[in-house]
């Protein structure tokens, strides 16, 4: 894969996501935007940058920053799980599509610091926002594991009423 990416972009992808370029379902699905990040994207919110601690401003981003009220602040993966729980998500066993639910995968590094969230699409593929860069589609949640995001820690689901 890699169609439509510059040589420099391909190098970045290869070094950060070594499995991604061999994913036959990998493709870019948006232009670059700093308006939201992976956490917002997984929560289906593209109108804000979701980060912790709440209100912390990152000067390179223009998006509105937000963290769920009452959610625990911190880098530990349990803080991210808490943030998703405060928005109605519950822990589940896997990332397999389930009627009536939207699923997400949460990622952490070897220190159990959260790094990323990806969302299962209705077509069975996964979607991720790569920081302030682009949105992508990938075939499964494991194809973006690697140096940048670490590994899938758990799956959560949100009831679609």
List the helices and strands and how they pair.
Elements: H1 7-16, E1 27-28, H2 38-42, E2 49-50, E3 65-66, H3 77-86, E4 90-92, E5 101-108, E6 114-120, E7 126-129, E8 135-138, E9 151-159
Parallel strand pairs: 2-3
Antiparallel strand pairs: 1-8, 4-9, 5-6, 5-9, 6-7, 7-8
Q: What does the model show?
A:
The chain contains 3 helices and 9 strands; from the N terminus they run H-E-H-E-E-H-E-E-E-E-E-E. Helices cover 16% and strands 25% of the residues. It has one domain (7-159). The protein has a 7-stranded antiparallel beta sheet with strand order 1-8-7-6-5-9-4. Strands 2-3 form a two-stranded parallel ribbon. It is α+β, with helices and mostly antiparallel strands and 161 residues long. Strand 5 (101-108) and strand 6 (114-120) form a beta hairpin.
Comma- or semicolon-separated keywords:
single chain; about 160 residues; alpha+beta; 7-stranded antiparallel beta sheet; two-stranded parallel sheet
Q: What is the percent of helical residues?
A: 10-25%
Overall tally of domains: 1
How many β-strands, per DSSP?
9
Gyration radius, in Å? 15 Å
Overall pLDDT, averaged? 88
Write a compact overview of the structure shown:
It contains three helices and nine strands, in the order H-E-H-E-E-H-E-E-E-E-E-E. It is of the alpha+beta class.
């Amino acid at each position: 894969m890699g169609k439509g990416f510059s040589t420099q972009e391909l190098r970045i992808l290869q070094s950060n996501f070594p499995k991604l370029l061999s994913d036959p379902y990998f493709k870019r699905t948006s232009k670059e935007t700093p308006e939201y990040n992976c956490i917002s994207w997984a929560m289906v919110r593209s109108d804000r940058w979701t980060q912790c601690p709440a209100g912390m401003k990152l000067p390179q981003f223009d998006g509105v920053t937000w963290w769920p009220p009452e959610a625990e602040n911190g880098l530990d993966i349990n803080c991210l799980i808490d943030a998703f729980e405060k928005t109605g998500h519950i822990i589940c066993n896997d990332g397999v599509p389930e009627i009536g639910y939207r699923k997400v995968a949460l990622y952490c590094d070897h220190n159990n610091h959260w790094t990323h969230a990806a969302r299962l699409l209705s077509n069975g593929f996964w979607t991720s926002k790569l920081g302030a860069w682009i949105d992508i589609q990938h075939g499964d949640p494991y194809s973006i594991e690697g140096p940048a995001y670490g590994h899938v820690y758990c799956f959560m689901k949100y009831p679609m009423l």
